[in-house]
Specification:
With about 800 residues, the protein is mainly β. The chain has six helices and 54 strands.
């Protein structure tokens, strides 16, 4: 047994604290006494309830002709009584309510509304004498038991009301995606997730592994054209520990919430109120231990105020059950509670809301104000649904609905299920069957009570499938993204790159997207296409979670990838690409450029980035994020453009243009200035296998002296053998180059890269700038250009000077 006592603000300044009632032997409340409704009473009423409400009470009494000289009113709770004999039952109820408030959240607004209709309390939203406002900070104490033993008697699932399956029409997807954007040129990262805040700022987060105790946040202020790590040290944004599963969201105040799993022991939750420069952290956010795979969801309330915001935190406790906790939204940098102090949201707390399971990301529906949690359960999906009244954070009555069985002969798996809610409140669940490896979906039009018979989404060449994610848009529009290969079989049984790299490359995985229209009806249309232009993984994908470390399975990408939609409705997918020579999980983003958005609008304004590419100035601050804010712009690292060309068939010319090269001084904290142009090309790996190697052309200057030019192919820093963590760009081979005004120009014979550059295309060409102290350092990421693909022989070569 562990005790918990948390002291927080009791309410707004000037608001009366909660009171209790003293009951006399014959049941009368000692505070219920008649008093004249004179000027003093009216003033007190205005002070306590607000003048509008007080005037409304008097006007109502005049309309009914029932205004009396004397009213009976409890001075403690503010309740007006028609007769004194009501005191016993009413105040007994008040005393019980007071006991509940001492251990839990206040009553649900629905109950307050019923009592208001009965004439007992003022309307919800108005301060009640003797009570705090709903959703305000409060005192509570409690105790909880920590146990790893299975819980007996968790709430079971009720079978869903069946709906017939929709008839499917299949068409080819026609959405256009641009060249992959390099999110981070150095760090590998598994399980990437993305989020757009109310201003369109792009957030991404993912873990780096428990052995490193680090997880990362990347942030883009230009709509995802370039990203920078949220840390002046190039590591995690907040204090450790961590390195496990992550999630990041923002609320309607623009405040940021980050959660990191701490070695399957506890969850660390952090809040930033200044766009990621400063983070406050609670390293032991929940009362449970042996927890895993946490997800956030945000309820922005019904007003523009922070007071009714709620952050929900879902997770499962191994062999115990699933839980959904809640915390008030942050009110600012001085708030010690919002997003940091958590308690169970369930009416059955501390009992789990259901049995232990692998669950999808939480989703909150602002239309019907329902919270959804989809989990794998046997041969079907279990959907947990809880209705959330405005401002409600605890006492939520959850129900568990068993969806129809998966048609593939197995159950939902590989690994997490997916779910989404569209703008009309229709609910969708999707999963991959563990037996036939197909993608299935089901829908509900009545808030999760009734569900359609599942239907298959994927078709060839997506024969075997993994890692599904979902987002919904306009009424009846659902988007599903997953990884697929045309090789039949079980993902766990494919050749493992670490043991058989040549065999692994026979199984090529691509990213697939399926957009469903009229997905909530009897006749749905599915448009399937790829969102990656080349393979993004080879061979085995291990589905054993952390057990892959014991079996030696390939878990380089961890367990999933995510996608979201931006303010224009465009699909934005963050994913790992392990096809480099290290089998390292390089972090990329795929962006929808044109076509219909899932919000029902047309995606406009974005075009395919082509060679040469220009870059805006003024975005090369160092550091980008720090406790004192962003640093000064560094003109020597501030790209204005990047151009590739070929003066002859055997030579590649690279021209990197900067705002000013008057100074070549390195950024603060680094000894050497660095400019790199990196790209991937089909080549061979270290064992002769197919690989999309990372090549680069670079320049470096130590101590501000004349730069030298070089080329190479990346090396990788590993924490354990064949576990690539950091890509390094050493000066392997010197080449001819020079400074031409504010440009760095290098001519590179294709033969000097050390490995063959096969095929006609260089993928995701990107220039990055910063500084380093050594080749295997974490470089400062000062600026980056947009990514583009270069076709050999296309365009004119840039002038040598």
């Amino acid at each position: 047994m562990r005790g918990l006592a948390i002291r927080v603000d009791r309410g707004r300044p000037g608001e009366a604290p909660p009171t209790s009632h003293s009951l006399r032997p014959r049941g009368r409340c000692g505070r219920h006494r008649p008093r004249a409704r004179g000027l003093g009473q009216r003033r007190r009423q205005r002070n306590l309830l607000g003048s509008d409400h007080a005037d409304g009470l008097r006007a109502d009494a005049r309309r009914r002709g029932r205004r009396r000289r004397h009213d009976h009113r409890c001075r403690g709770c503010g309740v007006r009584l028609r007769q004194r004999h009501h005191a016993r039952s009413l105040c007994a109820e008040r005393a019980a309510a007071q006991a509940r408030r001492q251990r839990d959240e206040p009553r649900a607004p629905a109950l307050l509304q019923r009592r208001h209709r009965a004439g007992h309390v003022p309307p919800p939203g108005l301060p009640v004498p003797g009570r705090r406002r709903l959703g305000a900070p409060y005192d509570y104490t409690g105790s909880y038991v920590v146990s790893s033993a299975p819980v007996v008697g968790n709430p079971a699932s009720t079978p869903a009301n069946p709906i017939g399956p929709p008839t499917i029409t299949r068409v080819a997807g026609k959405l256009q995606f641009g060249p992959a954007t390099v999110v981070d040129a150095q760090r590998t990262e598994g399980e990437p997730l993305n989020w757009f805040d109310k201003n369109g700022v792009y957030w991404e987060s993912g873990p780096w592994g428990t052995t490193s105790q680090n997880s990362f946040i990347h942030r883009s202020t230009d709509g995802g054209l370039e990203f920078h790590i949220d840390s002046p040290a190039g590591l995690r944004p907040d204090p450790g520990p961590g390195g496990g599963d992550t999630d990041i969201i923002t609320d309607d105040q623009g405040y940021d919430y980050f959660v990191d799993l701490e070695a399957l022991v506890n969850l660390g939750t952090s809040v930033s109120n200044d766009n990621g420069n400063n983070w406050r952290k609670n390293p032991a956010a929940v009362q449970n231990t042996t927890v895993d795979r946490q997800w956030y969801a945000v309820d922005n309330g019904t007003t523009s105020s922070a007071a009714d915001n709620t952050i929900f935190l879902g997770f499962h406790q191994t062999a115990v059950g699933t839980f959904i906790y809640s915390s008030p939204g942050s009110t600012g940098p001085a708030d010690p509670v919002g997003g940091l102090v958590w308690q169970s949201s369930s009416a059955n707390a501390p009992q789990p809301i259901a049995d232990d399971a692998t669950c999808a990301q939480l989703r909150f529906d602002p239309v019907y104000r329902d919270l959804y949690y989809a989990c794998n359960e046997g041969n079907h999906i279990r959907m947990t649904v809880g209705h959330v009244a405005p401002g409600q954070r605890t006492g939520i009555a959850y129900r568990n609905i068993a969806l129809p069985a998966s048609p593939g002969g197995g159950g939902p798996g590989h690994l997490f299920p997916a779910m989404a809610v569209d703008k009309s409140g229709n609910v969708y669940a999707a999963w991959i069957d563990t037996n036939d490896n197909n993608v299935y979906y089901s829908y509900s039009n009545d808030q999760g009570t009734s569900w359609s018979s599942p239907v298959q989404v994927n078709t060839a060449p997506a024969i075997t499938n993994e890692f599904i994610w979902a987002q919904a848009g306009a009424n009846g529009v659902l988007a599903l993204a997953w990884l697929g290969t045309d090789t039949p079989g079980q993902p766990d049984s494919f050749p493992n790159w670490a043991d058989d790299p040549n065999g692994a490359t026979s199984v090529k995985w691509y990213g697939f997207l399926g957009v469903l229209t009229k997905a909530n009806s009897a006749y749905a249309t599915i448009a399937q296409q790829r969102f990656t232009e080349k393979p993004m993984h080879y061979g085995q994908i291990c589905n054993q979670g952390i057990g892959c470390t014991v079996s030696g399975g390939d878990r380089q990408m961890a367990d999933y990838f995510g996608f979201n939609i931006d303010q224009a409705g465009a699909i934005r997918i963050v994913y790992d690409d392990t096809t480099n020579q290290h089998n390292g999980a390089g972090l990329f983003e795929a962006r929808q450029l044109s076509g219909k958005s899932i919000l029902g609008t047309n995606v406009k304004g974005a075009t395919v980035t082509k060679n040469p590419v220009s870059d805006p100035t003024g975005d090369a601050q160092w550091p980008h994020y720090s406790p004192t804010g962003a640093g000064a712009n560094q003109p020597q690292f501030d790209f204005t453009g990047l151009q590739l060309g070929q003066p002859n068939a055997g030579t590649l010319r690279v021209k990197m243009s900067l705002a000013s090269l008057a100074s070549l001084a390195p950024p603060a904290g680094k000894a050497t200035s660095l400019w790199l142009t990196r790209f991937q090309a089909r080549s061979t790996g270290d064992s002769g296998e197919e690989a999309y190697r990372v090549f680069y052309v670079g320049a470096q200057a130590t101590g501000g002296l004349t730069p030298s030019f070089f080329v190479g192919s990346t090396t990788c820093t590993e924490t354990t053998p064949q576990n690539c963590k950091v890509l390094n760009y050493p000066a392997t081979t010197a080449v001819t180059g020079h400074v031409c005004g504010n440009s760095l120009v290098a001519d590179v014979p294709l033969s000097v890269f050390g490995n063959p550059v096969n095929g006609p295309l260089l993928y995701n060409v990107t220039a990055v700038s910063g500084g380093k102290n050594a080749d295997n350092d974490l470089y400062s990421d000062v600026d980056a250009t947009r990514s583009f693909d270069y076709v050999f022989g296309s365009g004119k070569a840039p002038p040598s000077c």
